[in-house]
Specification:
This protein is α/β, with parallel strands linked by helices. The protein has three domains: about 5-115 and about 245-310, FAD/NAD(P)-binding domain; about 125-240, FAD/NAD(P)-binding domain (3-Layer(bba) Sandwich); about 330-410, 2-Layer Sandwich (Enolase-like, domain 1). The chain has helices spanning about 15-25, 65-70, 135-140, 155-165, 185, 190-200, 250, 295-310, 380-390, 395-400; strands at about 5-10, 30-35, 75-80, 85, 90-95, 100, 105-110, 110-115, 125-130, 150, 170-175, 205, 210-215, 220-225, 230-235, 235-240, 245, 260-265, 275, 280-285, 290, 325-330, 330-335, 345-350, 355-365, 365-375. Strands 3-2-1-7-19 form a five-stranded parallel β-sheet. It has a five-stranded parallel β-sheet with strand order 9-16-10-11-12, with helices on one face.
Length: about 400
């Protein structure tokens, strides 16, 4: 039985791997156990829809640490193992083989699961999702020259997989429920840039599309039937319609759950000794004055430091602005800040949307609340500083590419 100063991390993604690193770095010298339900040691997910899917990165490069790191740092990996219950009162976790392990502190980094498509035929074998490394390999096998690929969902995963399929020479139709991909996320002006990017690369975009059923025979999909009666032939169907945080363990343990595991700014849950980080954490954000659950790599990278310090009894708060990035075809984009539909008045552009080389600023009154750079590099740090400063900025100055952004900082 492990000693009771054991720290346990549940999860197999970036947040789990980084939390182990941060705990060792900040002085936890007791037993440290990472429990993951996949056979892989902790790995990073963005390459699954980017470099790894495109064949530009090898399998070894997606891992958070080399295998030797865990041995050298005395971190025990329990892989291919599910935690079936957490008992915050008794400070134990129960494993799928019935074993109960005590913990002094527990971090839930259980991540999220892709939402399934709830239509007849959606369980056919070549209806594909993307979350795990095996999913990325199935997509890579399906994306071949001339293959007919139907992508359901115009979010980041849908657009990145569409770009990868086109790069492989597949014929791609992308189905979007709304008028434009990313419309809710970015607003019309910026969403139009991404729609045009995909049209220019030969993707057939279908807005206002409703999937009625996935057609096929013998367990394999051969097409997608839309509500308007159109049938699109398909060699594979890729579904990217959002994710659901994996809160089942927390919920069953009586922790507060509301679109994620609820935590304070220190990433403490409602149960003493239990913390949460990454996709699953609905954490109070002191800078934004509200609870946020952020489904992006940067959160999984940076939150573990706060979680580790909190687990070690230090006073640490997580107040980094959300950040994410995408690579599609030859376009690279970075975004930082936070806003929602109705949370901003207008978007100010610096540079050319037609050439897809610009910086965009989401404005609330005279304040920048979010910013995005498209094929303009080394500015996102300045954009972040501008948002954090809360400074009043004139639209004309923001829009002037001849004026260094740094000069607008107070």
């Amino acid at each position: 039985m492990p000693r009771v100063n054991t720290f346990v991390i549940v999860g197999g993604g970036l947040a789990a791997g980084k939390a182990a690193e941060e705990l060792r770095e900040h002085g936890h010298d007791g037993p440290l156990l990472v429990i993951g339900d996949e056979p892989e040691r902790p790995y990073i997910r963005p390459p699954l829809s980017k470099g790894y899917l495109l064949g530009k990165e090898d399998r070894e490069s997606i891992h958070v640490h080399p295998e030797s790191w865990y041995r050298e740092n005395g971190v025990d990996l329990l892989l291919g193992t599910r935690v079936t219950a957490v008992d915050p009162g008794g400070n134990t976790v129960t494993l799928d083989d019935g074993r109960r392990l005590p913990y002094a502190a527990l971090l839930l980094a259980t991540g999220s699961t892709p939402r399934r498509l709830a239509v007849p035929g959606a369980d056919r074998e070549n209806v594909l999702y993307l979350r795990r490394v095996g999913d990325s390999e199935r997509l890579k096998a399906a994306f071949t020259e001339g293959a007919r690929i139907v992508v359901v969902g115009g979010g980041w995963i849908g657009l990145e997989t569409a770009a990868a399929a086109r790069a492989a020479g597949a014929r791609v139709t992308l189905l979007e429920r709304g008028e434009l991909p990313l419309l809710k996320v970015l607003g019309r002006e910026a969403a139009e840039v991404f729609a045009r990017l995909h049209l220019d690369h030969g993707v057939h975009l279908r807005p206002h599309a409703r999937v009625e059923r996935i057609t096929g025979t013998g367990g394999r999909a051969d097409g997608v039937l839309l509500a308007d009666g159109t049938r699109l032939p398909a060699d594979a169907v890729v579904v990217g319609v959002g994710i659901t945080p994996n809160v089942q363990l927390a919920e069953a343990a009586g922790l507060e759950v509301a679109d994620g595991i609820v935590t304070d700014q220190h990433l403490r849950t409602s149960a003493p000794g239990v913390y949460a980080a990454g996709d699953v954490a609905a954490a109070y954000h002191p800078r934004l004055g509200r609870r946020l659950r952020v489904e992006h790599w940067a959160n999984a990278l940076h939150q573990p430091r706060t979680a580790a310090l909190s687990m070690l009894g230090e006073d640490a708060s997580y107040d980094r602005l959300p950040y994410f990035y995408t690579d599609q075809y030859d376009l690279g984009m970075e975004y930082t800040g936070w806003t929602e539909p109705g949370g901003y008045d207008r978007v100010v552009f610096r540079g050319s949307r037609q050439e897809r080389r610009f910086v965009a600023f989401w404005m609330s009154g005279e304040r920048v609340v979010a910013g995005m750079s498209v094929d303009v590099w080394d500015v996102i740090g300045t954009v972040r500083a501008l948002i954090e400063s809360g400074a009043a900025v004139d639209d004309a100055l923001l829009a002037d590419p001849g004026l260094p952004l740094e000069s607008l900082l107070p």
